[in-house]
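Lab notebook, page 48
Experiment: co-folding of the full assembly
Goal: obtain a model of how the components sit together before planning crosslinking
Operator: M.T.
Materials (sequences as entered):
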Amino acid sequence: EPEVTQTPSHQVTQMGQEVILRCVPISNHLYFYWYRQILGQKVEFLVSFYNNEISEKSEIFDDQFSVERPDGSNFTLKIRSTKLEDSAMYFCASSEGATGSSYNEQFFGPGTRLTVL
Amino acid sequence: GNSVTQMEGPVTLSEEAFLTINCTYTATGYPSLFWYVQYPGEGLQLLLKATKADDKGSNKGFEATYRKETTSFHLEKGSVQVSDSAVYFCALSGYNQGGKLIFGQGTELSVKP
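Observation: model returned without errors.
Model output:
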């Protein structure tokens, strides 16, 4: 069964450092998402990506964040200068489509736990 | 804006007990509603969904009915098992909003033998 994969499973970094979180979505999917979950809090939407551009982003997704699909398979989230409050579990998700009234299931990866020291 | 509120956990039940996890939402238009489950060490998995009022989603013995009049989507299961221990998230996706999911805070369920 196809699945979304994420690497690394756990990333520890120093405050101010850049990190890149990697995701491999399901191969025929066209919509890609990043969410995050700070420990003990709800899962929050960060950004959606379609057709090589950002479709929507939340207020959390400021200039320190960027996303990229550098090749046909990977989808990355970069944090340029990490802050303590960026410590969270980051989930990647993908779906076949997302438009109109029909729903296309989002498949989630297992997450990357980011710890900023 | 759109939001989801679900009952706080943790919820601890004995095996074969009846489960209800409450979920209410605030949204404009006609959102789609979902329950996701997260087993320890794993990602989120879609458990069930409903896309219009009065729809009932069901899977693995779990059910939830989309109630527009009460803006609710409560999760129920008649007889829980130890293997159902997980965190359950209620979520919505707004109509024509590109598919982003808005989650509730999650409810941890622990089922004891």
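Interpretation: Residues 7 and 22 of chain B are 5 Å apart (CA to CA).
Next step: discuss with group before ordering constructs.
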